[in-house]
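DATA SHEET
Item: assembly model
Revision: 1
Owner: S.N.
Input lines:
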Amino acid sequence: MNSNLWIEEKFEDFLGLKFKVEKVLFSGQSEFQSVDIVETKGHGKMLLNDGLVMVTERDEFAYHDMISHVPLFAHPSPKNVLVIGGGDGGTAREVLRHSSVDKCTMVEIDSMVVDACREFIPQTAKDLDHEKLTLIIGDGVEFVKSTDEKFDVIIVDSTDPIGPAQPLFGEEFYQDVYKCLSDDGIVVSQGESSWYAMDIQQSLLKVLNTVFPKSYLYSFSNLTYPGGLWSFTFATKKHHPTNDFSAERVEASGLTFDYYNAALHSASFALPNFVKKGLEGLIDND
Amino acid sequence: MNSNLWIEEKFEDFLGLKFKVEKVLFSGQSEFQSVDIVETKGHGKMLLNDGLVMVTERDEFAYHDMISHVPLFAHPSPKNVLVIGGGDGGTAREVLRHSSVDKCTMVEIDSMVVDACREFIPQTAKDLDHEKLTLIIGDGVEFVKSTDEKFDVIIVDSTDPIGPAQPLFGEEFYQDVYKCLSDDGIVVSQGESSWYAMDIQQSLLKVLNTVFPKSYLYSFSNLTYPGGLWSFTFATKKHHPTNDFSAERVEASGLTFDYYNAALHSASFALPNFVKKGLEGLIDND
C-alpha cells in the first residue's frame, strides 16, 4: 500500500484539510454520492461523502452529543423522535439513550452509507438494530410530506446543501416538518460554520423564520470540519432552548457524556458578536 | 509568481492545514525563529513563526478579544498591564482600548516579528506607538525576574512551548509572574488545544497550580489553529473569572467587540466533559 496516503478536503479554493490515511476500507459510488471509509492516522476511522469529512471516530461524540442532547433535554419529555439523515447511526445512538424515548424513526436516503458504517464504523452504527429504532431507507423530504405521525423532536442530520441534502434546506421541507411536529415540538438541524458559511446559515434561518415562531443558533467546536466553530439551528413551537431547560433534567437522566453537559447546553447559545451581527433579525438568541 | 502557492502547517504526522498564498510579503530568519508574512487568499495577511500560523487578518479578532477582554473585565479596575510576547501587536491593541488602563508594557523577544508586523500587518500592529504603551524588545522571562513593578493583569501571549517560548511554560517563570502581580492580580496565558495538546495543558496547569490558589481554563473557537477548540489558562490571586464578573462592567466600558461579549465571557468557562475529565484536579471551573 501507499505509505504516504493522504485525504485532502478542499474548502473553496483557499483552504485544504489533510488527513493521513493508513488504509482505505471502503470506496463506493451510490445513486446519490461517493462514499468512502478510511482508517486514518490520528482520527480513527473516517467517513467521507463526496470527499467531505462526515464523521471520525476521534471526535464524532462532540457532534452527536450536541445535535441530539440539546433538543432532547430542552424538551421536557421527548417520546417520539425523528432523525432525517444521520446514516452513520451516531445521532440515533444518542437519541436511543434517553429513557423517555419510546420510538426513534430514522430516514436515511443512502443505503450505502448505512451499510458501510454498519460494517466499518460500529462505533457510530452499533444501535441501528435497536428495538426502539425504525430505520427507513428513503427520502426524508417525502417522509415528512406523507407521514401522519407527530414527533416531539426532529433532528435534521444532513450533509451540506449540495447533492441529496439540498431540499433539506428549503421552505417546503420545513413546512412539512412543522406539520409533523407535536404542539411543543422542536427541530434541530445541521447548521454549518459561521466562519465560512454564514450565507447558508442566513438562508436556512430565513426559511425557519417563515415557518416557526422562534429560531435559535447554537455552536460547538468541531475538530474535523473546516471552520471549527460549527452550528446547529434550533426552531421551536413552544419551548425555549435555555429558559425552559434545567440542569436537574440532565442529572435525573443518569446519563453521562463525553462532550455535553448542562453548563455547555446553555453556553452553546452564547454566540460571538460577529455571528450575532451576521444573523441579526434571524435568531432569537438573547 | 507561482500561481499555485500554498502554505501547509503540519500537525504531528497526521494532519495538514493548507492555506492558499497569493504573495509572500516577508521572509526572514531571526535569532529565534523563522518569520514569514504572506498574503493569503481567504484569510488576509498571515504571520507564521517557524512555519506555524500565528495570526491572520480574517480571524485575529477572536484570539485577541478572548486573551485580553476576559482578564481585563474579570478584574474590577486594571490599571497596569503586562503583555509578554504578542509581537504582532493585537493583544496590546485590545488592552489599550480599556480606559482604566494607565500603562501597558509589552515585552517581545523577537524584534523581527514586531518590525515585520508594523510594516505588513498594521491591522494588529497599529497601536504599537500608543502613548500608554511601553514596548520592550527583550526576554519576558528576564523581565518578570528583574522588574519591581506590580501588574494587575499579565497576559502571556506566547507561541507553542518550542523554541523561544519554552521557558514561558515553566514553574520558575510563573513564580516570577506571581511576584510581580498585584494582590488581586490575574495572569492569562495562551493555553493550546484540548483536542490535540491536552498534555501541554496539563503540564501548564500543574505549574499554575503550584503557584496560584486558583486556576481555570476557558475556550473559544480559533479558525486557523489545528484543533479549533483553543484555550487560555486563567490563574488568579483573588478574583473569580465569572462570579466576580458583571455584564454591567462591559456595558459601562462603552466598548464594542467583534467576538467578545458578556454572555460569551461566562460561557467560555463551560467546558466539554472530555476537557473537564482530562484536566480533573487541575482546574477550578465548576
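QC remark: Chain A has a mean pLDDT of 96.
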